[in-house]
Amino acid sequence: MSVVSIFSGIYCQGAEIAREVAIELGCPRLGDDDLVAGAAAQSSLPAEKLRRAMIQKEGLFKKSSRERERRISLLKLSMSRILEEEDLVYQGMGASLIPGSISHVMSVGLVADNAFRVQTAREKDQLPAKEALARIRQEDQIAEDWVHHLHGLHAWDPRLYDILLPVDQRGVEQSVKMICQHARGLALLPSGESLQAVQDFALAAEVELALAAKGHVRPEVVVSTTGGRAEIEINKKVMRLARLQDELNQLALRVNGVKKADTKPGPGFHQADVYRQVDLATPAKVLLVDDEREFIETLSERLQMRDFGTSVVHDGEQALTLVEQEAPQVMVLDLKMPGLGGMEVLKRLRQEHPEVAVIVLTGHGSASDRDKCLELGAFAYLQKPVDIEELSATMRRAHGKIDQEA
After folding, report:
1. Which of 18, 105, 161, 373 has CA atoms 20 to 30 A from the CA of 282?
2. Rounded Cα distance, 57 and 59, in Å
3. pTM (2 d.p.)
4. Angle CA 60–45–3, to nearest 5
5. β-pairing, 229-234 with 221-226?
6. Which among 392, 351, 361, 357 is positioned nearest to 378, based on CA atoms?
7. Structural domains in the chain, sorted by start
8. Which residue has the higher pLDDT, 43 or 405?
9. Rounded CA gap, 268 and 264, in Å?
10. What is the pLDDT of residue 114?
């Protein structure tokens, strides 16, 4: 026996089953808290930012997030350290990070129908049925987004698991029994090949970190390693392919343990346009908040042409909701809006989300409003009409300041 990894839907008894399996097998039980703590210790990043990489939704901000990819690489590296220990049970979303090439890890997926899960929620957390179902759907979507981001597959695709157990049919006791029976099999004993796969997993994460530091992130570049050889796939439109290949190879070769690097076109490669790596100074997630729809949509398009990743909302309530869900890096905020005004949004952001840099952009403000906004913690106060280059430079400075503070 070596490692049992368990990925569970909410209210599928995942924690209970993992605990009983660990007791039965006489080995430690680890989870996402341990994974995040390890990544935080290696990087000095706050644990909450690393955890957010696992629950961040896809699709709202179209530009690839360098920060998220870097944090996922740090989580992979932390997982590789965990996998250096034999005989353990890991339960949590981090289980999806473990590649199938590590054959001494048995991957278990726990599922159940919604009726069972709602009943479990009512018994465990005293949730009303409607609230329980809403939470189940929300958590399922987070799991779907996470697994699809990593593997391009449905979260419960059987190809991801050695065992996919319907807990509502088998119950905790029978599920534990089945997992332990398989875990004790000879097939799970570590081999030279599977231990090498752990080292390859760790080295690939190191190379990903080195590339991300220079703005080369997934899915534009995809890294794999085998026995000290790094293979990098380019999935991006590129005009000067040879130049980019040389740059990526040199970055990989600087990583300790990489003996050879080979960069080649991947399935998403097109030699047609100029490849532009992510500009590290340009925020990938900018939330524009203004009730003047034509103005803000035009501004969004002009910023996207300058490589900013933008999304637009038209009132303060929507802005606060999106901050909770998407964690933007920079917000450009109008003051005068129907309902919740910009001043109140700014106050609440400073209290609840100080990591978001706020630039006030208004056409109706006064000197008093300016002083109040800066006192409340706005990074800058700009007046409409604004020069697009001035706004772009201000956004980059705001992002840089927040990034340094993180």
Report:
1. 373
2. 7
3. 0.71
4. 90
5. antiparallel
6. 357
7. 3-188 (3.40.50.300), 192-265 (3.30.1340.30), 286-405 (3.40.50.2300)
8. 43
9. 11
10. 93
